Amino acid sequence: MTEQTAAEAEADTAAAEAEAPDGGASDAAAAAPPMPPMPPLPPVPPLPPTSRPPRRVLRAVARWTVAALVLGGLGAGSAYAITAKERTDVPGLATESDGRWGFPRLSLPALPPGAPRPFTEGNTAEVHHADLRRLLLPAPAGATADKKLTGGWISTERFVSEYEKSSRADIVAELKESPLRHIAARGWTMPDGTSSRIYLLQFNSAGYAEAFHDDRYGGTATAGDPPAGAARMELDESWSGGGKVEHTASYVAVEPKPFGAAQVRQAYLVAGDTVALVVQSRRGAGGTSRVPFHQTVILQNQLLG
After folding, report:
1. Which whole-number Å values give the CA distances from 177 to 18, 171, 172, in the listed order?
2. Cα–Cα distances in Å, from 174 out to 87, 156, 178, 273?
3. Tens digit of pLDDT for each residue in 182-205?
4. Beta strands 262-271 and 274-283: pairing type?
5. Model confidence over 81-102: pLDDT tens digits?
6. Residue ranges in the chain whose pLDDT is less than 50
7. Would you call the peptide bond into 258 cis, given omega within 30 degrees of 0 as the criterion?
8. Three-class SS string for the chain?
9. Domain residue ranges in the chain
10. Distance between CA atoms of 261 and 257, rounded to whole angstroms?
11. pTM for this structure?
12. Are residues 16 and 295 in contact, defined by beta-carbon separation less than 8 angstroms?
């Protein structure tokens, strides 16, 4: 993957660092009831470490570019707390009231004994062995949970409802051709009316995940299939990729002015065998805010690393 650059790296990096803890899993996660067992997964077909499955010719010649930040020390078989500096230690930080949301402390879930993390040596398919639902970003303080996107499994039809009707049949067909395992999703709405939805799509291997993303979205100068309610999308020039994890890629777009009744922002994350879609929308002339959206994208990307 190449790298998308922009002018506001410090704000994006600070967004991730502001919400990350010094260590330990969240109290909320510890108190959560046990989750139902995951459905059985189809066998992973043998693939060369660097091979990619056959796919259609990409629909454009330009790739969006990304920036990367290494996070080391991901030990297999145990929870890993995402760490960072305090807000006041971050150079270039604007103010305490820069629009960030108050997310709970984040930690990566424990892995089954002997299971590697997705980007460790020997995991050639870059598989996330943790329960995918545990890798969804939790809702921030003050949010109202989406009653339909509660952090569990969802159908393909629910996922494609994020897109204009003209694109849905093609996306469903693409997912049926790909060895998609399952989709997990969470959503919430903030007091100012900003609606957030996060979808994690897990495939049999990193090659299939990357191919699905590239075929549908990755080679375009906008955002691929248009999201529902957005007339058009443009590359978010303010996105710097700050807070990213090595080996993952982020593609961020925003609906430009003039927009309609609501403004939409969206981001795609490609992390090993998983493709994430992050969507935020807000009705009204003010539209969506850049800072909390970038913060959400960065934190979700860290959880996938």
Report:
1. 40, 10, 9
2. 43, 11, 6, 16
3. 999 999 999 999 999 999 999 999
4. antiparallel
5. 443 333 333 333 334 467 899 9
6. 1-32, 41-42, 44-52, 54-96
7. yes
8. CCCCCCCCHHHHHHHHHHHCCCCCCCHHHHHCCCCCCCCCCCCCCCCCCCCCCCCCCCCCCCCCCCCCCCCCCCCCCCCEECCCCCHHHCCCCCCCCCCCCCCCCCEECCCCCCCCCCCCCCCCCCCCCCCHHHHCCCCCCCCEEEEEEEEEEECHHHHHCCECHHHHHHHHHHHHHCCEEEEEEEEEECCCCCEEEEEEEEECCHHHHHHHHHHHHHCCCCCCCCECCCCCCEECCCCCCCCCCCCCEEEEEECCCCCCCEEEEEEEEEECCEEEEEEEEEECCCCCCHHHHHHHHHHHHHHCC
9. 9-32+62-303
10. 11
11. 0.71
12. yes
The residue with tokens 């062995």 is 129
